[in-house]
């Protein structure tokens, strides 16, 4: 789209999620090229030139696009397995199957994962992929290709594992890389795919999997590599009590102290889960501006516990939302996590004061952009920012009697997405993806799941 072509969206409620939580009960948004040109109350300015489209958004709430901060796309083809396991037992049950994935499977799984998120309002996505069986093909390239086809803004967290069962870890011996191989492949992925420019559609982060599946040297050298290349760092942290015990037994300290000792706290770092954090851990994250990807449904599915999100936010820790892998959150949707984050956190110590609707929306938008290092570009609706936004339809039976649109979106049933824009380009219309074939993706993911199950059964 040429920079001077415009799209005008009018007659909608708007939640900007800017620094002042500005909202317009009836307003407009003007997109010019890949940027938000202007927005405000009432009708759009008169006399706008080069207007390609005018959208009458009566009955809709417009918000920033949702930002997913933690996922494992390959797990799409192992959904519905090990449904009554805690994290460690779940990993032991599924690693032998995951270790047999290949490029065709990963591409199909990425298509399925991205499709579910995009049709539900996600405009910025990420994938933490850390399983690279020998001879499995170009897995990183397959994931990036699926994201490009879907049309979302994307961060690939290139993961790795080098601590297998023989070293006291959980993955099978044949499912891990060597230290040298993991670092070399990660560096090559960054150099081939990472775009550091404003509005980049593809970025790469360095992402060793977890303390119980990587060596101390992989963590330490991974952090050094990321900083030498100028990219962000991602891993799992403090997800379960078993992980805390593992770290204390193996390293003589808890996860947060261990991460700090290996260079893994800082404003360029974000960690998934962070369920079991004491006051000292939260203070360390706040001091260093280390980010958190909160995954409420996955944490409940695996009985991991309730993360102290209200305390993190109060301390100044950046927090976003994550779907997590679809083998631990079978719905694969982020917009349902707005509601789940609010409800699950109200079961914790703060009860009804834990989170409100607008805080939940901020977690799923600006908070996620902040965690991914892109808050200056996306995550809120402001003039000059990227044109990443969603139109939620709130005038149907599902939300008809809820007066406040943000309350309707967060507390109510999952709202239909009438339109979703990334970089000023529409990727969803009336809940359907515009640039990929959802039905073909469903067939492909089903076939690849069956294929993986057959291969795994053969051992």
> What is the arithmetic mean of pLDDT?
96
The overall strand count is: 17
Specify the oligomeric state. single chain
Specify the helix fraction band: 25-40%
- The structure class reads alpha/beta
Strand content: 15-25%
**Model regions low in confidence, pLDDT < 50 over at least 5 residues:** none
Describe the structure.
By secondary structure, this protein is α/β, with parallel strands linked by helices. The protein is 36% helix and 21% strand. It contains 14 helices and 17 strands. The strands form 3 sheets. Strands 1, 2, 3, 4, 5, 14, 15, 16 and 17 form a 9-stranded mixed sheet that branches. Strands 6-7-8-9 form a 4-stranded parallel sheet. The protein has a 4-stranded parallel sheet with strand order 10-11-12-13. Strand 1 and strand 2 form a beta hairpin. Helix 4 runs parallel beside helix 5. The longest helix has 20 residues. The radius of gyration is 21 Å and the shape is globular. 55% of the residues are buried. The mean pLDDT is 96.
Briefly, what is this?
The protein is built from 14 helices and 17 strands.
Record keyword descriptors for this entry.
459 residues, alpha/beta, nine-stranded mixed β-sheet, four-stranded parallel β-sheet, 14 helices, 17 strands, 36% helix
Layout: helices, strands, pairs:
Layout: E1 6-15, E2 23-32, E3 35-41, E4 51-56, E5 60-64, E6 66-67, H1 87-98, H2 103-118, E7 122-129, H3 139-150, E8 153-160, H4 179-193, E9 202-208, H5 216-229, E10 233-237, H6 241-251, H7 255-261, E11 269-273, H8 279-288, E12 291-294, H9 296-301, H10 309-315, E13 319-321, H11 335-345, H12 357-371, E14 389-393, H13 405-411, E15 417-422, E16 425-429, E17 432-433, H14 438-457
Parallel strand pairs: 1-4, 1-5, 6-7, 7-8, 8-9, 10-11, 11-12, 12-13
Antiparallel strand pairs: 1-2, 2-3, 5-14, 14-15, 15-16, 16-17
